[in-house]
Amino acid sequence: MSPSEQSIPHGHVLRYNLRERLTHWVAAAAYIYLLSTGLAFWSPWLFWLAAALGGAQVSRMLHPWAGLLFFASVWNMYVMWARQMKYTDDDRKWWKAVKYYSTNQDDKMPPAGRYNAGQKFLFWGFFWSSLLLLLSGIIMWSPQYFAWHSLIAMRISVLIHASAALFTMGLFMIHLYMGLFAERGAFGSVIRGDVSIAFAKRYHPAWYKEIVGESSSPRK
Ligand code: HEM
Question: Are the C-beta atoms of residues 110 and 90 closer than 8 Å to each other?
């Protein structure tokens, strides 16, 4: 039994180990900084965000570095979770039944594994967006290396950067709502690491069966 498993309270199971939680919070902190400074660059109405974060020069200097940190943590998520985030036939069934999920009729849902199809969508959305943000961001960061047709490269990069950022904002709002309000007990899992058995059985029944060693047969 690992040290993190020993400290799990009775009636709970480990959902996120320390490495997973640290990676998640580095990604979250970097993303919130990127979002605040990025919005300040985007609109004069939001410039106060950069002023509050040390001024325009500091924000402009640190934004790309925070971007590298964000990408590195998303990449670490990829290394840890990509295999568990693969789409399966059950995920297709999950989307078809999503109306039951949104009306809290979890017993009518196909059994979700460690991640449900919505979480997988969020993961891949963040993964591909952060790749686009990285590539377009690097072009904007070092225009001197793209001088051959820098104006075109720059315009395309601005467009890609803004579109990918906008897409992640949509994902982020849904993620906050789901993690903080919709699924009671989820937030504790990225803080302490554990969830109650009731949470695991309700939201991730196939995963629960897997970790307690039962074979996962479809629910009737
Ligand atoms: C303050 C900001 C954030 C909060 C409060 C938050 C909250 C949470 C919670 C509660 C979970 C556990 C969900 C569960 O297993 O049932 C989670 C998981 C996760 N978070 Fe965050 N998160 C935040 C920021 C981010 C950011 C910026 C990313 C972008 C990379 C991210 C990516 C993920 C991923 C991929 C998972 C695992 C799959 C999932 O549950 O969706 N989170 N987060």
Answer: yes
